[in-house]
Design brief:
The chain has about 160 residues and is mainly alpha-helical. It is built from eight helices and no strands.
């Protein structure tokens, strides 16, 4: 017959087992919700554009365009946070949304057709949150108006 265990040993074993069980259940949840579930990676990539957007530079830096194109390839609907002004509300009053939407996209994407395509493809779907803390931006993007046959981008 095994000798009886002391109470502290049993308590430590229970705490350790509880921790391991909690970790085992949390791991699949973390794997199912990667950082790509938010637009935080896109927001971080677009920080290379901030000097231009906030009028600290007159030129759009080359890394900015590289990161805009990467965002179009990896998280295109996240650009809707820029178009809708959500990024401006998060970053602060120096953020010039017109420079972000008009100037940066014109230089980096060529013309407005890419942004219009993204607007069409992301319309009616909830956007991923901008960051885990700022989930106010998850509402569905309204579909673009097509009353005159021309596509217009809603900047506000």
């Amino acid at each position: 017959m095994a000798p009886p265990r002391s109470k502290p040993t049993i308590i430590i074993a229970c705490v350790l087992l509880s921790f391991l069980a909690a970790t085992a259940f949390a791991a699949p949840a973390a794997a199912a919700a990667p950082d790509e579930a938010t637009c935080a990676p896109s927001l971080q990539r677009l920080l290379s554009c901030l000097d231009f957007i906030e009028h600290r530079s007159d030129e759009i830096p080359t890394p900015c365009c590289i990161q805009v194109k990467r965002t179009v390839a990896e998280q295109p609907c996240c650009l809707m946070h820029v178009v809708r002004g959500n990024a401006a509300r998060l970053i602060g009053p120096e953020y010039d949304n017109t420079r972000a939407v008009v100037n940066v996209t014109a230089k980096c994407l060529g013309d407005a057709s890419v942004l219009m395509s993204i607007t069409r493809n992301c319309s009616g779907k909830p956007l991923p949150p901008l960051t885990p803390e700022f989930t106010f931006t998850t509402a569905a993007v309204p579909p673009p108006s097509s009353s005159s046959g021309e596509q217009q981008i809603d900047l506000g």
